[in-house]
Design brief:
The chain is of the alpha/beta class. It contains 20 helices and five strands.
Length: about 525
């Protein structure tokens, strides 16, 4: 790639490649989307009971599912297409950001690194909270930089406000964006005057007003989202040596990030973030911007990983600036202590390894199915398999019960069983969940139980995994309980699970966790 290539060529290349990638993602989703992931089915069920707050997250993901379910008529492809659109548009916004920070060639490099990141492939396939969150964060980054570069462009503040407000309703992580913005502006004398601009102040901190609905909802529900989120920051040990456990968690987290980003990108990104931190205050404004929104929180995440277990997707939004930083380094725009400049020639290798990881994500399930090993330990789709078969077998036994459609449905076990069953049944009915512990552990315990919905005196059909009989507390809730049948489902060529179906006659009082 020669620097003499006109910038517009890089922009056309980026748009063309992103268009092709989007089309391929849609084609793949149309052909290979068979089952939703557990979280997808769970959020889909949220979308059927719209509210302004939920157990573990703000409400936007439920609103998105309700809208997509409406326009897509319950199609799984509609969910996949939405994820593909959000993931691909996020890369386009990163392109615009990096081109504004440096040049079009850096934007082109950013697009290639983003496409070759397995994380982008995953969030462009699964419609979970990460897809809209990353989209909102990428838009906020671009609009903030555009405003700082051209303050007269007042539309930038409007778009920034919308991105932040929507992001706050996606996930709690978005609340950090205004704080990072203040840190960036306060770091250098040339940007401090922006802190005094009322328009920017209102945009950044006025965006928190979008959190009023979920805050009101939480106030009415014993602040359940805050309690759930707090559990993520608890230090949990396995009873062994605490030092070894922390080191094991730390290296496990770092190892997953090399898979999330691809090895070459992760190595360069982490090297740039850690060696760039000392330059935070004296670097040029574009580099300072990337270090503030990328290196600083990435370093904080690494420190947090020394304290507790971490989810692989937690740093996702911070990698956006990290990828732009990596692209700028590969394009010769940065000179940091590490990595050595000689490694820039390995850019094609980095893209090649990342592309191989992405290809495995898409083609691995096809290969394992072709050789009769679907659900293999290395099958990327192993967690998606079998749920449609559970729904089909349950429906078969359900229809043997007289007046089956007059019964309400109940599922035991993990919340995924409830949501996957509701999604997989032909009529997609309401499925209640019974929690065996006296606690609230999912959104299902927040909703009305069968007694509260006026189903006292009605009969139920109950799905129980790995059970020969119903738990005594639940069976006592009915006048009589009988087994309808049982079945086994092979979720992979090595893993099989048993399920039993029961009929409960005449509900007396639902044994609730509340």
């Amino acid at each position: 790639m020669s620097n003499s290539v006109p910038p517009i060529t890089y922009q056309r290349r980026a748009l063309f490649v992103l268009g092709v990638v989007f089309a391929l993602r849609l084609l793949y989703a149309a052909v290979f989307a068979k089952n939703p992931a557990g979280d997808e089915a769970y959020y889909w069920d949220w979308g059927r009971q719209l509210d302004y707050g939920y157990y573990s997250k703000p409400p936007l993901i439920a609103w998105i599912y309700a809208f997509v379910d409406w326009i897509g008529h319950g199609s799984l492809f509609a969910f996949r297409a939405t994820a593909a659109a959000l993931g691909t548009l996020s890369l386009f916004m990163l392109y615009k950001l990096s081109a504004s920070l440096f040049d079009e060639r850096t934007g082109w490099f950013t697009v290639l690194l983003g496409i070759a990141a397995p994380a982008n492939a995953v969030l462009s396939f699964f419609l979970t909270i990460d897809a809209p969150l990353v989209f909102c964060w990428a838009m906020a980054l671009w609009m903030l930089w555009r405003y700082l570069s051209e303050p007269e462009q007042k539309s930038s503040l409007a778009w920034l406000f919308l991105a932040l407000a929507a992001g706050h309703l996606c996930k709690q992580m978005m609340m950090l964006f205004p704080l990072l913005s203040v840190i960036f502006l306060a770091l250098h004398s040339e940007t401090r005057p922006f802190l005094k601009r009322p328009g920017l102040q209102l945009t950044l901190f006025g965006s928190y007003l979008s959190l009023i609905p979920p805050l009101v909802w939480n106030a009415k529900h014993d602040w359940i989202t805050f309690k759930h989120t707090g559990h993520h920051f608890e230090v949990k040990g396995d009873g062994g040596n605490p030092l070894f456990e922390r080191l094991e968690d730390f290296f496990s987290f770092v190892g997953t990030q090399f898979g999330v980003l691809s090895p070459g990108t992760a190595f360069v990104l982490f090297s740039l973030c850690l060696t760039g931190l000392p330059l935070l205050r004296r670097a040029d404004r574009p580099v300072r911007f990337l270090l503030t929104f990328g290196a600083l929180p990435v370093a904080a995440m690494l420190l947090l990983a020394l304290r507790q277990s971490m989810q692989p997707n937690w740093p996702a939004v911070y990698y956006l600036c990290g990828i732009v930083l990596t692209a700028a380094w590969y394009n010769g725009k940065l000179q940091f202590a590490l990595p050595g400049a000689s490694l820039r020639r390995l850019f094609p290798v980095t893209i090649g390894f990342g592309a191989a990881f992405v290809a495995f994500f898409y083609l691995g399930p096809v290969y394992f199915a072709a050789v009769g090993k679907s659900g293999h330990l290395f099958d990327p789709n192993r967690r998606l398999l079998g749920h449609d078969l559970v729904a089909a077998e349950f429906d078969r036994l359900r229809m043997t019960v007289p007046n089956a459609n007059d019964h309400f449905l109940v599922a035991l076990g993990h919340r995924d069983i409830t949501s996957q069953l509701a999604f997989g049944l032909p009529d997609q009915p309401r499925v209640y969940r019974w929690e065996s512990q006296d606690r609230i552990s999912s959104q299902y315990e927040m909703w009305n139980n069968p007694s509260e919905d006026g189903l006292g005196g009605k009969d139920a059909i109950i799905l129980a995994p790995n059970a020969k009989e119903l738990p005594r507390q639940l069976s006592r809730a009915f006048d009589e309980v009988e087994k309808v049948g049982e079945f086994k489902i092979r979720f992979s060529y090595t893993r099989e699970r048993s399920f039993a179906v029961f009929r409960g006659r005449t509900l007396k009082l639902w044994p609730s966790a509340r």
